[in-house]
Structure formats: C-alpha cells, structure tokens
C-alpha cells in the first residue's frame, strides 16, 4: 500500500489517479479495518464522476459496503458487495486478490450464510467460465474451496484450490503461492500431515514472490507451528510461532492476535502460567477492541478456548465450562462445522468429568449427528485416489515446466560421466516405473488391498456384515446405440460414468465395476466407516438428478438420451481379488443379487431400495443447520434436545410386496429427498 500512496502523490487528476484512489481505499480497509479507506473511495468516486470515467465509478458501492461491514451489518454489506461486483463485470474488470469478488467470502463467513456462499460462487464460476475474465475463474474456485473446507469436504476443497492455483499461475502469478499454502492447510485439517508439510514448505520457499511476502511468510510459520503442535512437539511449535510473530509490525493487529491465541496453549502445556496470563490479558483486550471474530478469512482466533484452557489450569472448572459454551455458541452462529465438532466433543468430556450426565449425552448426540453428516474420509485410499485425479488435471503449463526441468537434469547428467549417467538414469527409470505401477494399482484396487497385495503377493478375501450396494441400468440403451455412432455412444457412457465416479468419490463409496451400460458401487468397504447407507442413498439421488438434467440437455439438442433405474440393498458380502491376469476387486453374495433385483424391479427416474436399506435410513433426520444423521434415538422426537427442530432427510413411497426375479415378493420403497432437506 505504501507504493500506491507514493504514486498517488505525484499523479494528476486523471483516470489513473481514480484507479489508484480505489486501490488505496480497498487496500487500506483490508489492512486497518477502519473508515480511512472510505475517504479514498469517496475521492475516487468524485473524480470519476468529474471525468465521466465509468470503470472508476464501478467501485462506488464499496463505500456503503465497507460502512455496513465495519458496523457488522453483514446482509446489507453483502448486497453492496454484489452491486459492486456486477458493475465491475459490466466493464470486464478482472478481480483477483483484494477484489470485492474475493473478499465477499469473509462476509458470508461472518454472516453464517455458507449456503449462500456456495450458490453465489457456483453461479459466478459458470458465468466467468463462459464470458471471462479468466482471472475471476480462479477467484471463484478459491471461494468454493473455502466453502468445502468449512464443510470438511476436503477432497473437493483441494480440487478447487488446485484449480485456482492453475489460473493464478497464468493470470496473477503472485497469488499462486497462496493457493499452495492453503492446500497445505487443507491437508493438515484432513489429517495427512506429511502432505501438509510438503505443500507448506513449498509455499515457504516461494513466499518471497507473493503479494505480501512478510505476511505470507508469517502465516506459513503459523501453519507450521500448528502442524508441530498437532504432533505434540511444543518446543518446535513455539519456535515457529515466535519466528512468525517477529515478522509482524504493530499495525498487523489481527495476525499478531492469531499468534497470541496459538502461543497461550503452548505456555500452558509447558507450565508457564504467568506468561500465559500476560498473553491472555492482551488477547482479551485485542478481541474486545478489534471485535475479532472466532473465524474469518485471516484464520481461527479461539480466544474463548484460550480462556477455557487457562481456567482449567487454575482449577476453576465451572468458569472453564462457561468459556467453552461461549466458544460453541460462536461456532454455531458462524456455522463453522469443524469447530462445532471440536467444541461439542470437549464439552461432552467436561460435562462427563463434572457428573452432568444429561448434558454429556446431549453433546454426544449432537456430535455424533454432525460427525456422521460430514463423512470426510481421511484414509490413505481416499487421499491416494484423489491425488491421482488432481494430477491428471494439472495444467499444460505445469506439465511443460516439469518437462523443461527434466531436460535440464538430463544435460547435467550427461556432463557428469558415462558410468554415473547410466546409474542415475537406471535409477530414475526404475523409480518412474515403480511410481507408475503404483498409480495403476491404486486406480483398480482400494489402497488397503493394493498394499496387502504388494506385501504378501496376494490379498485375502474378507467378510463384511453391512455393505450397501448400488446398481444402475440405462433404459433405452439399445435404441440409443442404433442412433449413435460407436464413438458417440462410448463418449456418452463415459460422460455419465465420470459424473457417477465424482459423486461416489465425494461420499467415500467404492466403485466395483461397470458391465456394459450398468454401474455398480458399494458403501461400507474396504473400510466399514468410509461411507454409510445414508451416503449411498444420497449418491443415488444425485446420480438420478444428473441423468434427468442430462436428458433435458440432450433433448434440447435433438440427441438421444438415456434414462436410468437405480436399486439399493444392504447386507453381508465377501470381497476380494479374483484372478491373476487383469485381476479386479469384486464382491459376492446374495446381497449382490438382491441389489441387482432392486434395480430391475425399479422405475425410470426413481431410486428403489430394499426393506433392509429402508430400516437403516428411515429415521435419518436433519436439523436447522442442515446437518443430517441416522442417529435419531427416538423417532417421535421433533427437536434435538436444545429446541432446534428436526426434519426427515428422506421421504419414502412404500411399494408393498413387489415380485423380484428369482426372489419372490419383496418389500420395496421409492426414496426421495425431503422438502426440508437443505444439506
């Protein structure tokens, strides 16, 4: 911002001065969070009107936007931000870091309106992908990444941040390193600390090229400190925190506050209560003076948690509980789901320790509901499978960069001597071959099975008690195949099956195989906790929604389209590898046959489920936060114990006993999303 102010002093009354005034106004507000920025924006508006400079006048709504934001009137601020974004779009002005399009995400957080954030960025992404500017596509991916991160949908968060990084590398290179840092943060929350450290260290090396090298480096030290704290290495965590805080000046109040909130627990863990008290007093004063929120785009500042931990050390359990309850209230208000999980679990433990069993049970129920609804599978299978997909989506620019690097390495090797060259090239070829074979193995087998196969030379078949199997089949496939060329037919099948792959991967469901135009997948294996019957039903409904939308699209184009039946059944299976050539992971048992009959006995556009699956999902409920769960202790309850209403997740149409080939008559149900379903 200093460079902008310096340029402003020497600039005359022209359009460049208008642009500088707008840039300073926005940068000032982001840095200081006071009305000083509005002063510059008013000057910009006046001069833009005088010059009749339309692009300069486009930022005028930010005057009201900041006025509302600084007084916590978030709904009005969001409307003003949107008005400014519309004006900027009208003039085709790109919006990257520090723009209204990027910063509106902080208002969605403060207002606790995450669903609106999803809708806003999804619609904007579609618009910018069609019409540009290209930079705005990256900004929208960043906004969507943050949404999925707060929902604990880590794979989707990483995917959007990866895509944002690709766009920024081309159109705003100084912002790309921030995406690398954020990807590391997501892996850290996902529990993959090795990958987290890899991305954070990569970002640390590139931080000098960022928009704000000092603040970005400080934030990376904060992240690395969090990583070490998670590994219980308090000394290294404190070292990172202190190095990061030392980079910040007195004006960086928000960032310094974040470091205080991290250092206080460390001081308590090593028994430095006096130092913790001094830091805590400053933290409480800063929180009150600056109106620092629990969660923001700057990071999480858990002031109440620090007070809770300090009071526990002093032995004042009742006061400690009150601080933790206040922290939970703030997390609920902001719909910060990871913090809601964390605080509910901690509160349950505190209530249990104090003998308040009803409150303990209440928090455990709420925790279980929330945890079940956020099936964020952090096992190695999910991570490895996802990263394979991400690598395939790397941009051509990145691939070209890698090829150039390899060529440079070859030149160095060739100059090092013949014998050494042979050894190094041979080692590289072996490494590449092993890496490629591992990737291929993970593409056809679950990671657990692949590791067992590599270790033992074979993989044992295993029995699973409760697996939910989903079958799909297309109606009119034969007729469509007569109207489409072989290439068109395969392309359409591929489009549908790729969509299905994405749907089930997001819910931790294992793809088993495709047979012609049929698709088969299963939830609850090879890791039983990886997915739930409710998740499989959700996936089936999403598949049907995709097919219905796809048919409308192709009908409008006058092209043949598929319609689909889906069947689901839950029961025991045996799973393992078959054959030694072109081996595949497969499942066997009567459950498979019954699931197939559910599909063939269904109807187009419907999801047909068996009685056993119905019994597992019929009591699924959703609370007012959009949190779904199958853990409804009493089917007649209408609230979650805290007065918040519960609604059924699904509605069912009983079909009675329906004849199933080879099975006789079986109870079946059509399932749909409830009208109250919002998750």
User: Which topology of the largest domain does CATH recognise?
Assistant: Alpha-Beta Plaits
Q: Helix content range of the residues, please? A: 55-70%
Strand residue content: 5-15%
Overall form: globular
**By helix and strand content, what is the structural category?**
alpha+beta
Mind telling me the C-alpha Rg? Answer: 28 Å
Describe what you observe in this structure.
- 65% of the residues lie in helices and 12% in strands.
- With 679 residues, it is an alpha+beta fold.
- The chain has 5 domains: 1-91; 94-210, Serine Threonine Protein Phosphatase 5, Tetratricopeptide repeat; 218-327, Serine Threonine Protein Phosphatase 5, Tetratricopeptide repeat (Alpha Horseshoe), CATH 1.25.40; 380-444; 460-673, 2-Layer Sandwich (Alpha-Beta Plaits).
- The strands form 3 sheets. Strands 3, 4, 5, 6, 7, 8, 12 and 13 form an 8-stranded mixed sheet that branches. It has a 3-stranded antiparallel sheet with strand order 10-9-11.
- Helix 15 (253-269) runs antiparallel to helix 16 and helix 17 (303-314) runs antiparallel to helix 18 (317-333).
- Residues 375-404, 410-431, 623-629, 631-635 and 639-644 have low confidence and may be disordered.
In short:
This protein is α+β, with helices and mostly antiparallel strands and 679 residues long. The protein has 29 helices and 13 strands.
Present the secondary structure layout.
Elements: H1 2-10, H2 15-32, H3 36-51, H4 54-57, H5 61-70, H6 74-90, H7 100-110, H8 114-131, H9 134-150, H10 154-171, H11 173-190, H12 193-206, H13 213-230, H14 234-246, H15 253-269, H16 273-290, E1 295-296, E2 299-300, H17 303-314, H18 317-333, H19 337-354, H20 357-373, H21 380-392, H22 396-414, H23 418-444, H24 447-456, E3 462-475, H25 477-483, H26 486-506, E4 510-515, E5 518-523, H27 533-556, E6 563-578, E7 584-588, H28 590-600, E8 607-610, H29 611-617, E9 621-623, E10 628-629, E11 646-648, E12 650-660, E13 664-673
């Amino acid at each position: 911002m200093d460079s902008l102010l310096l340029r402003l002093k020497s600039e005359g009354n022209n359009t460049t001065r208008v642009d500088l005034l707008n840039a300073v106004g926005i940068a000032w507000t982001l840095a200081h969070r006071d009305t000083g920025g509005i002063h510059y924006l008013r000057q910009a508006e006046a001069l833009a009107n005088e010059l009749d400079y339309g692009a300069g006048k486009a930022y005028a709504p930010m005057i009201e936007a900041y006025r509302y934001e600084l007084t916590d009137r978030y709904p009005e601020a969001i409307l003003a931000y949107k008005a400014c974004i519309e004006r900027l779009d009208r003039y085709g002005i790109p919006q990257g870091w520090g723009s209204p399009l990027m910063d509106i995400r902080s208002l969605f957080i403060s207002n606790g309106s995450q669903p609106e954030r999803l809708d806003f960025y999804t619609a904007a992404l579609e618009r910018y992908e069609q019409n540009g500017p290209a930079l705005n596509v990256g900004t929208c991916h960043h906004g969507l990444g943050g949404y999925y991160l707060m929902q604990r949908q880590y794979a989707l968060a990483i995917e959007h941040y990866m895509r944002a990084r690709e766009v920024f590398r081309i159109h705003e290179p100084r912002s790309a390193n921030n995406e690398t840092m954020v990807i590391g943060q997501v892996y850290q929350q996902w529990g993959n600390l090795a990958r987290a450290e890899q991305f954070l260290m990569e970002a640390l090396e590139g931080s000098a090229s960022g928009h704000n090298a000092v603040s970005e480096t400080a934030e990376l030290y904060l992240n690395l400190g969090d990583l070490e704290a998670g590994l219980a290495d308090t000394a290294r965590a404190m070292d990172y925190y202190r190095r990061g805080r030392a980079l910040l000046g007195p004006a960086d109040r928000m960032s310094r506050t974040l470091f205080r909130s991290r250092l206080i627990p460390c001081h308590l863990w090593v028994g430095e209560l006096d130092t913790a008290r001094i830091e805590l007093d400053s933290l409480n004063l800063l929180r009150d003076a600056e109106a620092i929120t629990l969660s923001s785009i700057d990071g999480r500042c858990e002031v109440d948690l620090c007070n809770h931990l300090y009071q526990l050390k002093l032995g004042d359990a009742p006061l400690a509980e009150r601080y933790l309850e206040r922290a939970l209230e703030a997390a609920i208000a902001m719909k910060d789901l990871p913090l809601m999980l964390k605080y509910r679990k901690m509160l349950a433990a505190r209530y249990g320790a104090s003998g308040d069993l009803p409150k303990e049970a209440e928090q455990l129920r709420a925790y279980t509901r929330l945890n079940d609804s956020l099936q964020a599978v952090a096992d190695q299978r999910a991570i490895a499978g996802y990263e394979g997909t991400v690598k395939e989506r790397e941009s051509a620019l990145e691939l070209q960069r890698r090829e150039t690097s390899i060529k440079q390495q070859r030149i160095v090797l060739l100059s090092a001597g013949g014998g050494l060259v042979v050894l190094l090239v041979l080692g590289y070829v072996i490494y590449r071959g092993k890496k490629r074979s591992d990737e291929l193995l993970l593409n056809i087998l679950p990671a657990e099975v692949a590791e067992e196969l590599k270790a033992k030379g074979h993989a044992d078949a295993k029995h699973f008690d409760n697996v939910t199997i989903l079958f799909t089949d297309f109606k009119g496939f034969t007729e469509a195949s007569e109207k489409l060329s072989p290439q068109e037919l395969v392309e359409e099948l591929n489009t549908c099956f790729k969509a299905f792959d994405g749907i089930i991967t997001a819910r931790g469901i294992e793809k088993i195989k495709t047979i012609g135009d049929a698709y088969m997948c299963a939830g609850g294996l090879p890791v039983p906790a990886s997915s739930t019957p409710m998740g499989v039903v959700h996936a089936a409904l999403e598949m049907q929604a995709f097919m219905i939308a796809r048919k409308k699209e192709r009908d409008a184009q006058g092209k043949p389209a598929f319609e689909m039946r889906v069947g689901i059944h839950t029961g025991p299976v045996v799973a393992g590898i078959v054959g030694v050539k072109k081996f595949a992971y497969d499942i066997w048992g009567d459950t498979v046959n019954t699931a197939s009959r559910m599909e063939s006995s269904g109807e187009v556009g419907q999801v047909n489920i068996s009685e056993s699956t119905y019994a597992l999902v019929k009591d699924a409920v959703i609370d007012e936060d959009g949190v779904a769960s199958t853990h409804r202790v009493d089917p007649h309850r209408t609230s979650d114990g805290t007065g918040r209403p519960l609604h059924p997740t699904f509605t069912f149409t009983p079909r009675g006993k329906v004849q199933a080939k080879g099975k006789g008559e079986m109870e079946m149900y059509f399932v749909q999303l409830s009208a109250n379903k919002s998750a």
